[in-house]
Amino acid sequence: GAGVSQSPSNKVTEKGKDVELRCDPISGHTALYWYRQSLGQGLEFLIYFQGNSAPDKSGLPSDRFSAERTGGSVSTLTIQRTQQEDSAVYLCASSLVGGGAKNIQYFGAGTRLSVL
Amino acid sequence: RKEVEQDPGPFNVPEGATVAFNCTYSNSASQSFFWYRQDCRKEPKLLMSVYSSGNEDGRFTAQLNRASQYISLLIRDSKLSDSATYLCVVKGERGDMRFGAGTRLTVKP
Q: In this predicted model, what pLDDT tens digit does every residue of B30-67 receive, in sequence order?
C-alpha cells in the first residue's frame, strides 16, 4: 500500500500475556518510529530506527518492551508480560532521512491495545 | 523538564477568532520543527513545517525563535473544522522526533 500499515488494528489481551504489534512502513522510508499514546495524552516516544544504525531505544519504558526491524523494512514491537498500564494506542511512523520535507513523518492508524 | 512543552489548553474559541499556540523545546541542537494536527481517535498528520524565517500557509502562520527555543502557531479566522489537537514536534540531532503533549482546540459556532 501507499501508506504506513499497522496490524492488528485492535488487540485485546490478558494481563501477563505477550503481544506483537506490526508496522509496515512506506516503501523507501529508512526511518521508522514507534510511539505510545494513552487516552487523552500526547505521544510518548518509544524507539527509533534509522537505516542500519543502532536503534535509539531511549524511550522504551521497561525491559518488557523490545522492537526489531528486519531487512530495514517491517518492524515488530513486542511487549512481554503485559500489564494493564500498557493499554494504549501504539502508533508507528516512517519518514525519509535528511533535511526539510524529508523529515515529515507519516503515521499508521495505530494498534489499540487493551490489557484486561 | 519535558523536551517539548506546549500550552495545555483547552482553547475554546468562536468561529472567526484568531488563536495562538506556543511551544518550547529544551534541546538547543534541535534541527527541524513541525506542527501536526490530530483529530479525535485518529493518527497525527502534518499541518506544516516551521522555518527559521517564519512561514504561512493560508490561515496558518508558524514562527520559530531559536534563541528562545520557542515555536508558535497562529490560526486566523478559525473554522469549525479546525477543532483538533495541535502537536508541536521537534527533531533532535540524532534524527529522533519528540512530540509535545498537544493543545486541544475547539471552535464553536
A: 888 999 999 998 999 999 999 888 899 999 999 999 99
The three three-digit cell numbers of residue A22, written as one number: 506490526
State whether B95 and A33 contact (CB < 8 Å). no
Q: How far is A93 from chain B (nearest CA, A)?
A: 10
Q: Which residue has the cell 498500564?
A: A85
Q: Verify cis geometry, omega within 30 degrees of 0, for the bond prior to A8.
A: yes
- Evaluated on CA atoms A106, B45, B35, A75, the torsion sign reads negative
Closest CB from B36, B95, B100 relative to A50: B95
Environment class of residue B9 by beta-carbon count within 10 Å: exposed (0-12), middle (13-18) or buried (19+)?
middle
Distance of residue B50 Cα from the nearest chain A Cα, in angstroms: 10
User: Is residue A40 within 8 angstroms of chain B, CB to CB?
Assistant: no
Give the model confidence (pLDDT) of A58-69 as tens digits.
899 999 999 999
Q: CB distance A104–B46 less than 8 Å?
A: yes
**Integer-rounded Cα radius of gyration of chain A:** 14
pLDDT of residue A41: 82
Q: Provide DSSP, chain A.
A: --S-EEE-SEEEE-TT--EEEEEE--TT--EEEEEEE-TT--EEEEEEEETTSPPB-TT--STTEEEEEGGGS-EEEEE-S--GGG-EEEEEEEE--SSGGGG--EE---EEEEE-
